[in-house]
Amino acid sequence: MASTPWTPGITAGRLSQEEIKQNFSDIDPLFEPHEAAVAADRCYFCYDAPCITACPTAIDIPLFIRQIQTGTPEAAAKTILDQNILGGMCARVCPTETLCEEACVREAAEGKPVEIGRLQRYATDTLMAASVHPFERGPETGKTIAVVGAGPAGLACAHRLAMRGHSVTLFEAKEKLGGLNEYGIAAYKTAGGFAEREVDWLLQIGGITVEYGRKLGSGLELGTLTSEYDAVFLGVGLGAVNALRAEGEDKDGVQDAVAFIADLRQSDDLTKLPIGRNVIVIGGGMTAVDAAVQSKLLGAENVTIAYRRGRDRMGASGHEQDHATSAGVRLLTHVVLRQVIGNGAVREAEFEYVTETDGGLAGTGETFRLPADQIFKAIGQTLEAGPEGLTLQGNKIAVDENGRTSIDGVWAGGDCAAGGDDLTVTAVAEGRDAAEDIHRALSQ
After folding, report:
1. What is the 3-state secondary structure (H, E, C) of 333-381?
2. Which domain holds residue 56?
3. How many domains does the chain have?
4. How far, CA to CA in Å, does 33 sit from each of 71, 121, 404?
5. Are residues 286 and 371 in the same domain?
6. Per-residue pLDDT tens for 229-238?
7. Please, which residues have CB within 8 angstroms of residue 107's CB and are 6 or more apart in sequence?
């Protein structure tokens, strides 16, 4: 676990072991069978179901809910996993309230959608509990593919390629597979080590060899991979963190929110994880909410999310925002951090109120200060130095509709690739679709 800069207000053990256990218990417990049956009965089983269109992986939602209704959750899980091999994790972390559930006809008619996410979790967890892997590896093709990065995109790509009979080598820089599913999502959403268990289950397909501690550009070169493998898929994510561009942001106590969440997720004892008394999170996305809520759950007394625009512009959904406020997190909008104040370590943060104009954000000249001993940066990530020869679009790898990059034989998907939402479910779809395109290309 990475060391945390010491400041007078940052300390471990603010809460007892029992309080921590309660705070980080499963946020949305699994349906009991009778609960799942009742929830499934609410589905209209629409012929032209808008929920399918709203799902980035195009799961046949009415079909899997019908299968739950008829008492065959394992069959429902197979329907889900055919389209989304990480359906268990997506059931936990997908913003279903802005995707399938928002499109649900029940939502339009009654303001209460079918609980698609919880039903999906019920089906996939039931199947995984039975230690069943419903997919078989296809006949060996003799083709080899390098998949770099074992996040959602890389895992989905590797699994689909293995299903097609190809041999996959999965290169991962860290000690565990899963990417942000393992290192970057709130612990209360993935209780019980689910991310790791799901990866172990996924690898049961066979045909996938894993090499740990292998990072692109650090002894693992794209040119070498393209010469040694029949195809390469890049799912390297975004490793660099955007700067705050505020005076004093180098002071002790200013940290990357993703690194904080990673430390928390890998901690064996959360009572030993230091947290501030007054915590400020800069940003408005899911990472900002996860960092803020978990700070509160660790015992921080005052936690504030500070965002430069209005709540309607936040990357975090309304559901996530409400969850933050219900946990005691304060949301400040239309504010920009101007200065981190302190003698070596953070003591205060100075903000300026801003307004939105046609030319962007404009300062009002009105400033205020908040006490702070810990500030988390959650203002987005950017691609680390891109592999030589790849065309970039903005700060991501340019790809076509099939995930093909500017280098022949190289595909990319997930957060590192341009054009998609930075969501687990989108990354899965891009990895899966790139695998099918690789398969077509190698079959010609």
Report:
1. ECEEEEEEECCCECCEEEEEEEEEECCEEEEEEEEEEEECCEEEECCCE
2. 33-129
3. 3
4. 9, 12, 43
5. yes
6. 999 999 999 9
7. 101, 113
Is 370 in the same domain as 264?
yes
Going by their DSSP bridges, the two strands 302-307 and 278-282 should be labelled as parallel
**Domain-located, residue 116:** yes
- Residue 3 covered by a domain: no
Task: Report the distance separating Cα 106 and Cα 42, nearest Å.
Answer: 8
Amino acid at 417: A
Check whether residue 207 and residue 299 sit in a common domain: no
Same domain assignment for residues 371 and 431: no
Q: What would the two tokens of residue 134 be?
A: 């419903």
In this prediction, residue 7 carries a pLDDT of: 63
**Full 3-state SS string of 176-218:** CCCCHHHHCCCHHHCHHHHHHHHHHHHHHHCCEEEEECCEECE
CB 438 within 8 A of CB 233: yes
184 and 255 share one domain: no
CA dihedral (99, 103, 106, 108) positive or negative: positive
End-to-end CA distance of the chain: 47
Which tokens go with 253?
């106590």
Residue in this structure with the two tokens 């592999």, named with its chain if needed:
387
Is residue 8 included in any domain, yes or no?
Answer: no
Evaluate whether residue 13 is within a structural domain. Answer: no
382-414 pLDDT tens trace: 888 667 789 999 889 999 999 999 999 999 999
